[in-house]
## 1
Amino acid sequence: MNPLHNTELDLNLLPVFDALIRVGNVSRAAEELAMSQSAVSHALKRLRLFFGDPLFMKTGGGMQPTPKALELRAPVLAVMGTVRGELLVREGFDAAVAHRTFSLCLTDMGELIFLPRLITRLRETAPGCTLRTLQVPMRQIPGVLESGEADLALGSLHAVPEGLFQQQLFTRSFVTIVNRRNRRIGEQIPLDQFLEMEHIVVSLSGRREDGYDAIIDQLAGQRRVYLTTPHFLTVPMIIEQNPDLIATVPRELATKFAGYKSVRMVETPVSVPPFAIRQHWHPRFHHDAANSWLRKLVKDVFDTLPE
């Protein structure tokens, strides 16, 4: 920081820096701050002038922070976290009149199964708020939550990152999906046939041992895994074109897939314990009024899901 300009920094500019470093987009930052894009651009111009650095550069992937901006990131986010968590919390959060963007770490499965319900409830209770979803590698989730880039991470994290708060939303079971044209598989699939067939495993990390259904290998023995992918939504299309492949996925997802008529469900021939879906958040935002309101909304939505 240029010491000659220390007394000239307008602290009202910090929320603009905070929003830009988190969302990397002027229009989304303006929406979150309830400002016009021109006002955000003007604030960024003043920040650049004060720090003597471009701070953010336009690229195909959005506004990328410069090394100077990355240097400023931690202290600015710490200040904003204190303001949100210890000062503004006293003012509460009025969802009916609030204007902000909530960001959620979700898998593609979460977007398909759970996001529509969240959108419906959010539009009813907070009409001025919007949503943004992120698909973040598991190892990066604590940092994304700590920085405020995401408000919550929703899903089944096999190894909950240390230091995060968590709340269980519900538990769900697994089921196996197969191609409808595969006549070798009857109404049930015996364990020996299950182990002989080639499997698709979904793993967000790309490693087989981190797959959602990794416990099957512990209970039934090693399967013949042909494909490991981080995406749930490609699985039914792959099975449709490759009838000899099968996959074990959460039951809600299999029900959605079965609606496309190319795959059907059979019970997995292994007694797999239910897995828990939880919401996770960082301690910095535990007392943040908006974050607290969002967590309650998410919990209420999932409490109404059918068993």
## 2
Amino acid sequence: MAIAQQPSTKQDILQYLWQHDSATAQELATQLEISQQAVRRHLKDLEVQELIFYSAVAQEMGRPQHVYQLSSKGSDRVSPASSINYSTFAVSLLDTLAETVGPDQVSHILGKQWERKAIAYREALGDGSLQERVTKLVELRKAEGFMAECHSLESDRRFIMTEHKCAISNVAESFPSICGHELEMFAQVLPDCIVERTHWIINGEQRCGYLVEER
């Protein structure tokens, strides 16, 4: 079913990527009922504005295919107002806590919150293989608003988990220590693994990445 035309085709593209996580130029052209050439012009403009980015995905035959996704900036552009308001409220609340009890205590509170999250994740993941647990963790993160995915490296003992859209990016910008607690949380969720950060949105990169390696 084609998406109804809106005054801005670029906005349609952003909205589609928000709803479906990723898409190729051909898929967008089909859904928007416009030519691939027109779609590619819009995609190029959106890239220049840093609202989207693409990954080259290998195919069995032919050249790699470009798969487009929203950047954090693009996600903010199309996020529902309620989501933005909740993020603003969370940052304001943490600012108030920092003024009241001090930044160290706020960091301690955030750490406790992630510990609770780790317990919930571990219960949900169960005792399957590492691949099964990482795959389940990615699904849980996607359900919470993170654009997550994972890829195996050489064997079923090493995986790269990436998150292209951070559901707590606004909070992390004001309180980057939350990302440190998040890394610790992943290590608690996968206690038989070494978990290392490979990419970080806060550093200006397009995604957060974690290397998960079985001990």
## 3
Amino acid sequence: MKKLNLKVAVIVGLLMTGTFVNCTKTKEKTTNTVAETIEISTTNLEEKTAVESRSPIVFITGYDKGDNKFYSSARTFFKEKQYQIVEDAYSLEEVINWMNKNVTENPYGEVHIVSHSNPWKGMSLETVINGERITAETLQRDSENQLIPQLKDGITENTKIVFHSCGLGKNTKLMQKLKKSFSAKEAPQVVASPYYNVFGGEFSNHYLAKPYYVFYPTANSPGKTDLSKEIARKYPNEREIEWFAALTNERERYIGEPYTFQFNVPITWEFDYHNSDNEIPTFETEEALMDWIANDEDLAKELNNLDIPVEKFRWRWNVKNSKLTVKGKSTVLCVLKPLTKPYGDLQHIKPDTNNKRLYAMK
């Protein structure tokens, strides 16, 4: 048989009804005194049961590689806000274990989780220590296998789990599963933006940007001119961006200027033909392999879920014993357009987690 593996946040009441008939003035005065006493006692009880939430906590769940300063810039941003910083927690398992070990009589308020993310590879945050990146599928699987610890306490309906993970707000399925993972006796609010989070910008320490994508087979770029024409056709309603300039620009040189960064999306498929009635297919060219992929219902579905055309990958394959391994890699050029105020002085829109236009909430 073919075997497919794809890696790719006591009210006490007293009701007194009826009319006192034939009561003396003394009795009326006594009744009022009792009611006032109960009212005062109730107020004091309410004050005692109101518990203040803890100060904000931030989990920096990764470390920077190369010139990317995402995590270090986020750390600086939150330190300036005097938030408690937690480092060396690179998995959901470690985050939840830390929260269980550090629970107090005061419930968690805002819990910020900083993690790289993109629509194709999921979050950089692992499910468990040395596990896979978090996606809706990996989180579901590891939760069902009881590998993810349970939060024991410290969560209320007012707890807000804020994910600073690019584009996560669009993934409602994953956000729902994350909310379940962070629920204890009560369920928290889980908040994430559909936009990209940018920390350490030249003009703002933290802002949001709208992404636009164009793809090409890794190491086989058609050139910026052809790519600019392609992305213009893909987003015909976006008329404020000069695409060629954006694709050749690597940073925001003035407030709101679009710019581009790139990353790769890899695919690995393994097919074991041991004890299979089918023969291992052979391919003379990359085009023949792409035709085989396009004609396979399961593989075509996988690519359709990624929303990257088969021809936008560079494909390689090899056969060892009874196993066929197919690898594809696509380079993504992501154009970011910083969100700016539509009126007044030119400035970035403040990333307000209470703003439903900027953040999705579950």
